[in-house]
Amino acid sequence: MEPRATPSVLGSISEVLRNRLEESLNDSRKRKNTIMLSSNSLANRIIIERWGIRPSQRKQYSNLFSDVRRHCRKYFRHLAAGRRLCWSSSSGSYTMGVFKFDEVRGNLILQFVIPQKGEEWIVPTAQEG
To answer: pTM (2 decimals)?
Structure first.
């Protein structure tokens, strides 16, 4: 029987995204001011972490992949509309600008921009822009 994308799993999308962004921010070898992520790559990560199912098994678990990918796209659209992502964790406080980079066959790609110190106020709010 195929696993299901329960509300608790779908509710973890924002947490998995924040963890992924924090990993990129805290990796001093790859430190950049811009991070690009696609909704499908986030969905794949959630599915691997939760069920251990790889993207190569997508045909076998087509309903699971389509459900999680659809919800990731919906969350990415929400982020792109707000244009700002802020959160606090045990490793610090984060503020990032969020911009739509591209959308290819339903795969939404967002650009997360890290403002320079002292320029956090420039990152747009949902009302601006």
So the answer is: 0.85
